[in-house]
UniProtKB/TrEMBL annotation, chain A:
GO biological process: intracellular protein transport
Localization of this protein: Cytoplasmic vesicle, Clathrin-coated vesicle membrane; Golgi apparatus
Protein name (Swiss-Prot/TrEMBL): AP-1 complex subunit gamma
Transmembrane annotation, as ranges: none
Major location (coarse): membrane
From TrEMBL, chain B:
Annotated CDD domains: AP1_sigma
Keyword Thylakoid in annotation: no
Function: Subunit of clathrin-associated adaptor protein complex 1 that plays a role in protein sorting at the trans-Golgi network and early endosomes (TGN/EE). The AP complexes mediate the recruitment of clathrin to membranes and the recognition of sorting signals within the cytosolic tails of transmembrane cargo molecules.
Domain (AP complex mu/sigma subunit): residue spans on this chain: 1-138
Top-level taxon in the UniProt lineage: Eukaryota
GO biological process, one term: cytosolic transport
Species lineage: Eukaryota, Viridiplantae, Streptophyta, Embryophyta, Tracheophyta
Localization in the cell: Cytoplasmic vesicle, Clathrin-coated vesicle membrane; Golgi apparatus
Subunit record text: Adaptor protein complex 1 (AP-1) is a heterotetramer composed of two large adaptins (gamma-type subunit and beta-type subunit), a medium adaptin (mu-type subunit) and a small adaptin (sigma-type subunit).
Protein name, per record: AP complex subunit sigma
Length: 877, 159
């Protein structure tokens, strides 16, 4: 016999473990015990199997691994005696769950025990099966359980009923087998069988509509009668809980009636009387009675409409809500959430009480109440309710502030009747709990501010005041710094004063102070500091008198350890020092942020055009500051050395850079197309850090970017006053002007026409409605490659929409098509679409080019298809 | 349905766990830690419900023991309180009084198994539960006696 296992009894082991002072000590005791148990198992020690398993269960409960005991459970279950089986099944349920493969080994023992002559052993098997059976076991043993639903002893029938619930949850297909035996249970008198039977039927309805129909037709009457009997039964000591006979049965019957009554007027009708009786007669001074009332209210709310009953139910909830017991108030709030969809008016009547619950000392109740208030808010009551919530924000617990702030922000955004109210409320929230406000909420606020031009002055002043009052709220600081950067001049000059405002005197240096404080504070994070830096740059042009001071602050950041700040500081410094003439244009106020694009972005859809405004608006959600100015600055820094700026207005300036950047890159063939593709392509390239004069290798990048765009032309509108066509026309001049700007830094733009022989343009295709011109150029290094610029001209008087050009070549040629400059061709030769093709001729010098083309477009929504073959290429291509 | 039942002492020691939904050993430890943290830190006058991970935990303190059951959000919280009380009363009747020392014994599990299967309550009569438990206990006693009498016989025979 093992000397260890015989030594400690279960009780001694527990005492030893409990006496442990440290976790390490406990682990040591457990390790010793486990070793002893394993040794005992290995010796196949019959006598102590029982005790070992009991010890293992205790060890398992403490969270130690006990898998080595699993096989012991199976052995105990397989032994003949009741005591062994009892502890074996207990161990099985505790040490294993449905996901362990070992469990399958027990299926056979279970099957035998389900057919055992001793009803207690049958009971053990049913209990184990009900608690941990897997889908396979459910399938294998369902017939046994089904048979046991008609067993002579009621205690087995009730266990079989609960076991069936587990089976049909695991394998819903088996539900129909259980419908009839389950219905038979509803006629029983034994409470245990009734409770479990009703529960089984309820769960059957959840998985099978056939069961629902069956029970609705056959059993509604029986159930109503049973509930009547239970509700009216005289005092029954065995089932009595606080003066009520069997509340568990009450509740299960009510719940089943709810399932049957939902969506069926006849069934609902037949239960009206008994529901009214339960709702009025049940004593509500004990928890058991309230539990029944609670269930009854839910049933009344869920079944088909009966006005009188609903009034009764809402009244019960009103009573619950004013109860002193926190549990009762909690369930009342819970149920009122469901009642809103039934009778919002009735719930609104309790608004004041619910609002009080938001301020309760109990976190569970507060949370429920806040959810409920959120549902109660509409256009008419948003102002007073929001005021209450914001007032409470001041005094609420720290851990509740997050939830509360999120809800308030969502309410304000959803229901704000006017912009000034929205801004006011958000400022209050930011001042109170700015650290809990999410980035996208701040960003939404900035979008709204930007869209309210008449409130700019008011907003910036209010933010200035709020900043002075509570500068430790990160989000508030960010918004304030942004606004002061944009609208700093309005702050100082008191522009757009509203009647409600008190005038304040802010000097220019006060405004700069805000940014300086922010940038120097240790608690500010990178985003905030970067925003402050940009604000300073903007202020430098708004307040010329402070520009020296601003430069000093910016220069200090040169030493920042954060790369982003250091780089920006260097760039901004060079703007201030070397580019005074363009500075004011660079730091102009941001264009109005597009609300629609923003809300679309929030909804998760990717906008099809990256217009300049969204480009700028990326910054807050990403937490990375990429203001509109930054990419330009990148560009400028590379081209510095006091280059003369070509123009003073920001739009033209950008346009010029655009022409410059692209004309050397895409040369003759793609210039106009890229120009039309708009500034954001440029911005993308720039923000990627690609130097602007990268010669022709950047061409594919530009085009691959522009492929993603559905309406490339539109994006330029905001910036350029000239039409796309004129931009194209202007590009050569622009190119020359930027060469000055580049000042020799970039390679002089190669003029492709000058490299290699020139080829005559050909009319590749001409029909009554369409002409296609091909211009050719060769890349100087590789004679096999020909770049073809196809120009499409519309000869008819209709606009061609969805214009698509396709081409095919024989095998010795390789063809690459770049995207077209547009997909709409204006009528009567008033505009063109161009597209670049690159052909590689592997048989250069032996064979000349040949191509098949297909052109598809739509005239007034009608598809047109044109096809042709091009044989008139110049021979030497 | 009840997803699990926990008995935790005021010091945070686990006294009984019973799982009706599958949780791995790791998850179980995590669940116990989270819930005991939530439960033990609540004041005495607050409501007995805590929302936890999309489910609801209904708990009640008896002497120095917290009884806790985790239910679906649409279940009846007040009824679950009654179930807990029901369980406690049966334990009381069996053990004399709620005494923490005894709860680790297998008997508490046996009683729970007579009360709840598959996360649903099976018996509303305390008397029936007590009768079933004592019937099974006497079966165990009988088996023991039989075993000892056999060993006596063997012992006498081999003398």
């Amino acid at each position: 016999m093992n000397p260890f296992s015989s030594g400690t009894r279960l009780r001694d082991m527990i005492r030893a473990i409990r006496a442990c002072k440290t976790a390490a000590e406990e682990r040591a005791v457990v390790r010793k015990e486990c070793a002893a148990i394993r040794a005992s198992i290995n010796e196949n020690d019959q006598e102590y199997r029982h005790r070992n398993l009991a010890k293992l269960m205790f060890i398992h409960m403490l969270g130690y691994p006990t898998h080595f005991g699993q096989m012991e459970c199976l052995k105990l279950i397989a032994s003949a005696g009741f005591p062994e089986k009892r502890i074996g099944y207990l161990g099985l349920m505790l040490l294993l769950d449905e996901r362990q493969e070992v469990l399958m080994l027990v299926t056979n023992s279970l099957k035998q025990d389900l057919n055992h002559t001793n009803q207690y052993i049958v009971g053990l098997a049913l209990c184990a099966l009900g608690n941990i059976c897997s889908a396979e076991m459910a399938r294998d043993l369902a017939p046994e359980v089904e048979r046991l639903l008609q067993f002579r002893d009621p205690n087995i029938r009730k266990k079989a009923a609960l076991c069936s619930i587990r089976i049909i949850k695991k394998v819903p297909d088996l539900a129909e087998n259980f419908i009839n035996p389950a219905a038979a249970l509803l006629k029983e008198k034994h409470h245990g069988v009734l409770i479990t039977g009703v529960q089984l039927c309820t769960d059957l309805c959840k998985v099978s509509s056939e069961a629902l129909e069956h029970f609705r037709k056959k059993c509604t009457e029986v159930l109503v009668k049973t509930l009547k009997d239970v509700a009216n039964s005289p005092y029954a000591p065995e089932y009595d809980v606080g003066g009520i006979t069997d509340p568990f049965l009450h509740i299960r019957l009510l719940r089943f009636l709810r399932v049957l009554g939902q969506g069926d007027a006849d069934a609902s009708d037949s239960m009206n009387d008994i529901l009214a009786q339960v709702a009025t007669k049940t004593e509500s001074n004990k928890n058991a009675g309230n539990a029944i009332l609670y269930e009854c209210v839910e049933t009344i709310m869920s079944i088909e409409d009966n006005g009188g009953l609903r009034v009764l139910a809402i009244n019960i909830l009103g009573r619950f809500l004013s109860n002193r017991d926190n549990n009762i108030r909690y369930v009342a709030l819970n149920m009122l959430m469901k009642a809103i969809s039934v009778d919002a008016q009735a719930v609104q009547r309790h608004r004041a009480t619910i609002l009080e619950c938001v301020k309760d000392s109990d976190a569970s109740i507060r949370k429920r109440a806040l959810e409920l208030v959120y549902l109660l808010i509409n256009e008419s009551n948003v102002k007073p309710l929001t005021k209450e919530l914001i007032d409470y924000l001041e005094v609420s617990d720290q851990e509740f502030k997050g939830d509360l702030t999120a809800k308030i922000c969502s309410i304000v955004e959803k229901f704000s009747p006017e912009k000034i109210w929205y801004i006011d409320q958000m400022l209050k929230v930011l001042s109170e709990a700015g650290n809990f406000v999410k980035d996208e909420v701040c960003h939404a606020l900035i979008v709204v501010m930007s869209n309210a031009p008449d409130l700019h002055g008011y907003t910036v002043r209010a933010l200035y005041k709020a900043f002075q009052a509570s500068s430790e709220q990160e989000s508030l600081v960010r918004v304030a710094v942004w606004c002061i950067g944009e609208y700093g001049d309005m702050l100082v000059k008191n522009v757009g004063m509203l009647d409600v405002e008190d005038p304040i005197t802010v000097t220019e240096s006060d405004a700069v102070d805000v940014a300086e404080i922010t940038i120097k504070r240790h608690t500010s994070d990178l985003t905030t500091k970067a925003m402050a830096l940009i604000a300073l740059l903007k202020l430098s042009s708004r307040f010329p008198s402070c520009s020296e001071r601003i430069r000093d602050i910016i220069v200090q950041q040169k030493g920042s350890l954060v790369l982003e700040l250091q780089q920006r500081s260097l760039e901004f410094n060079s703007i201030l020092e070397k580019h005074r003439n363009i500075r004011s244009a660079l730091v102009e106020r941001m264009p109005v942020l597009d609300e629609a694009t923003f809300s679309g972005r929030r909804a998760g859809s990717v906008p099809t055009t990256l217009s300049p405004s969204t480009m700028a608006s990326v910054k807050v959600p990403n937490g990375v500051v990429k203001p509109a100015a930054a990419p330009l600055v990148d560009l400028l820094d590379l081209t510095s050395d006091d280059a003369p700026a070509p123009s003073s207005s920001s739009g033209d300036f950008l346009n010029d850079i655009l022409g410059v950047d692209l004309s050397p890159a895409s040369a003759h063939s793609g210039a106009s197309q890229a120009a039309k593709n708009g500034t954001d392509v440029l911005m993308d390239i720039l923000s990627l850090g690609t130097p602007p004069a990268q010669s022709s290798s950047s061409t594919p990048d530009i085009f691959s970017l522009s492929q993603n765009q559905k309406s490339p032309v539109a994006s330029l509108d905001g910036l350029s006053t000239s039409s796309p066509v004129s931009a194209h026309a202007a590009s050569p001049q622009a190119a020359s002007s930027i060469i000055d700007l580049l000042d020799g830094l970039g390679p002089s733009p190669p003029a492709p026409e000058n490299n290699g022989p020139a080829y005559p343009s050909v009319v590749a295709f001409e029909s009554s409605s369409l002409r296609v011109m091909f211009d050719f150029s060769k890349s100087p290094g590789n004679p096999q490659i020909t770049v073809i610029k196809a120009t499409f001209t519309n000869l008819s008087s209709n606009i061609y929409a969805d214009f698509v050009f396709q081409a095919a070549v024989p095998k010795f040629l390789q063809l690459h098509l770049d995207p077209a400059s547009g997909n709409t061709l204006p009528a009567s030769s008033s505009g063109t679409v161009t597209q670049t093709l690159r052909v590689t001729n592997s048989q250069h010098g032996k064979k000349s080019l040949v191509m098949r083309i297909r052109i598809a477009y739509k005239i007034n929504g009608k598809d047109v298809l044109e096809e042709g073959q091009i044989n008139n290429f110049p021979r030497e291509l | 349905m009840i997803h699990f039942v926990l008995l935790i002492s005021r010091q945070g020691k686990v006294r009984l766990t019973k799982w009706y939904s599958p949780y791995s050993q790791k998850e179980r430890t995590k669940v116990i830690r989270e819930i005991s943290g939530l439960m033990l830190h609540r004041g005495p006058k607050l409501c007995n419900f805590v929302e936890w991970g999309g489910l609801k935990v209904v708990y009640k303190r008896y002497a120095s023991l917290y009884f806790c059951m985790c239910i679906d959000p649409e279940d009846n919280e007040l009824e679950t309180l009654e179930v807990i009380h029901h369980f406690v009363e049966i334990l009381d009747r069996y053990f004399g009084s709620v005494s923490e020392q005894l709860y680790f014994l297998n008997l508490a599990y046996y009683i729970l198994d007579e009360l709840v299967i598959a996360g649903e309550i099976q018996e509303s009569s305390k008397k029936t539960v007590a009768r079933l438990i004592s019937a099974q206990d006497s079966l165990v006693e009988a088996a023991k006696e039989e075993a000892s009498s056999i060993s006596n016989i063997i012992a006498q025979a081999t003398k």
